[in-house]
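Can anyone check this?
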Amino acid sequence: MYFPVADIELAPWAPLLIGFAVSVVSSPTGISGAFLILPICMNFLGFVSPAVSPTNYIFNVVASPAGLWRFHREKRLMWGMGFLIAVTSLPGILAGTVLRGTWLQEAADFKIFVALVLSALALNLARTIIRGGQAATRAENAFVHSHGAAAGLVVHSSGPRNIRFDFSGQAFVVPVHRLAAVSLAVGLVGGVYGLGGAAIIAPLLLSLFRLPIYVISGASLLAGWASSVFGLFSYICFWPWFSGQPPIMPDFALGLLFSLGGLVGIYCGASLQRFLPPRPLKILMLLLIATLAVQNFGLF
């Protein structure tokens, strides 16, 4: 099957299988799979035009709701945190789209930019895994020992200063101004990279805010979905304003095939998460980020 926007020829079952495989592996860590779809498109399928970014947004928009529904059913979806991340990341997404359309149009420059961001994330996450966070570790262990039978998530407030909640007997406080600042930066990188930012915000919530992985996963997916809707709109509608070029249209057929596979994969991955120990989940996240960083540096 020929995909004209991507200018590649691919069997229809291939993007379905790729979408499912990457999502079922990555979604237990709070990452939708779009994080992996983009480098696969660029490094292995030869889809390197700017259209790869809005095509990647389609994956998040269509596939992420399956995981969100699963986390909501298990009462582990923090709506307030997710929407705060999404709203404060929107200006950054627009700025990132501008950068992608001006300074980072060349694929080589784009890959180096992505590799540097991923390397910084990997180092920060590795430090967190080694050091750990006492409250988060205790909460995660208690959740695992209960076999995920009850989420134990109680949100006390989502006010203008702090988000306060309890999880598995441990109290957590997230300063809103710090989270908003981080989300703005994540939106900038996500706008350039062509994803909603869940792959970036998830490790930052673990490493900077020391939150349990079983809590941040749903909020990360929610933020990624909401900001992906805006990101897709930015590439289609705002691109001509600052680039002087026609709108960057995604490859809808390729994006939807990836998404249909991802829809099933994300639901399965979100269902499996509560049965998996926290440390292997974090190491898996680290390995995904580090591998992609090395790939984008062109080392293999």
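Reply from J.R.: I decoded it. The beta strands are 2-3, 8-9, 153-158, 162-167, 170-175.
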